[in-house]
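Box 3.1. Reading complex inputs
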Amino acid sequence: MATATGTRTEILISGFGGQGVVRMGQILGLCAINQGHRVTMLKSHGTETRGGYVRAQLVISPEYVDSPVVEHADVFVAFSQPAYKKFYDLCDGTVMYDPELFENVVDDAPERHLAVPATKLSKEKFSNQLFANRIMLGALTRVASLDYEAMRKAMLEVIPRFHEQNLAALDFGYRLS
Amino acid sequence: MATLTVSTRVGLVAPWVEWEKRCTDGRRLLEAGTYALTEGAIAAGCRVFAGYPITPATDIAEYMSKRLPQVGGYYVQSEDELAGMHACAGASLGGLKAMTATSGPGYTLMHDAYGWSITNEIPMVVVDAMRVGPISGITGAPGQGEFYIARYASHGGNFETIVLSPSSVQEAFWLTIDAFNLAERFRTPVTILTDQVISDMWEDLFIPADYDALDFVIPRKHNLMMPFYPVGSADLDVPPNLIGRGTGVCVSAYTHTEEGYDIEDMAAQWAQTYRLINKIRHHTDQLARYETLGLEDAEVVAVAYGANARTVKTGVLEARRRGVKAGFVRPITLWPFLDELYERDCRYVVCELNYDGQLVREVMRAAPDKKKVHFMGKSAELHTVAEVAAGLEGVARSNRVPELPYIWTEVR
């Protein structure tokens, strides 16, 4: 994966169950594997499937990954205020968040925060919020300098249906400035 | 008694080091440990799964229910774990390779079936995906609380057990094939002691294209002739017994003769016990699977198995970067315990996912000086790299593990 550092890349994704946290990690991970990288993804969740807390920790590396634990995330995708609060300290890099799902963010590092209004845009473009995750994934592809074509391909491998809308949402997120 | 020479070089000692070199044709996937455990079993020729779903082993049952019918096998959803393992014993005696999978609360229900299977030398594989306890603990959190229970998987004593623990999704695949091979060769249930992290985590996984071409898989053979139970012998590779095809073998919970008939006799008790203990103890050289790093110059050696061996290994590398002469031992074979890995007279820091201290007690027993064996117990979460590096640095510089939140250091 063509990341900025070229070595171990840590990505943390967290939110509520049902927001596609694990799915996003799965697409990212498969994309990296298809490009010849080694990948680990820890997923943790509460007892509930929908509504409870979910976290995916991805490590992508050209070499075998020893520790799969994200302790210094290069990118943190926060889909909820509680997830943001809980894991903010684990991120040394960029925090991507959806402002519609947030009341506030800490103000000590504005340069590391990137608001991606995925839920709002999903409602506007697709008349529902279901595609917010794919818009965020598109934006993440850009932010983390990942290979866009490889991401499109991995997404189609993982997502069984509604390919056209998913591709449109990914594209939309990727093109956000 | 077989002895083992421990390599001090960086590396892995396991049969799949060779297997990986020979298998190049296959697919690279992003899959979970439960998937790898299932596919490893199918590749090893497992054709029966009987069990009861429980987090974090449920996905094994689910994958098995899909996969076994595709390969002409049988999936049985049993009424509980006890019935599940007994059904596997029956399937194995019927001539098929069998597996069950569970987590701690179900594992405790299997001990009666373990006793039957160990005594009657019935090959099978049991997966225990450990979660934090006691009892139901936290479903989605890892633990390593069944280290001793897996060793003493039945009451009554007078037996040895084989227990293996993988620390990656890929290793779970190969190790499952290995577990089936060992079950066949040693005629005993082999336990895969894994944990919630390895079973639930997703990782890049290579799956060989053609399972039929895996010539290292030991096929099921049948023992149709007396003696059904080679009591008094420590021989390996005695084919498993087959029931129901006119063989006349008996299966019993009691001390048995070589035909399998109950007997109350000191000589028979001795002969049966000799067999159950020494078929394993006399062949520990064939059971050694482990990974080491930096032992040639290590002054402090971190010891860990399963999932947290991953962060512990990175912690060792981090400590070395900070100038600490740190080494790493990861036993893959947990039982029989590989005493030889701890022969070096140095300090040990044992990192395991329980607070009571289990693996650490065995390291204390095996190491030259138990006062030099330190404990870093954690529960429900993996050790972080930072914690491990701090622990190793503390022991190297001041002979003690520093105080860290949620890290238990007392052993008694």
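In summary: The longest strand of chain A covers residues 53-61.
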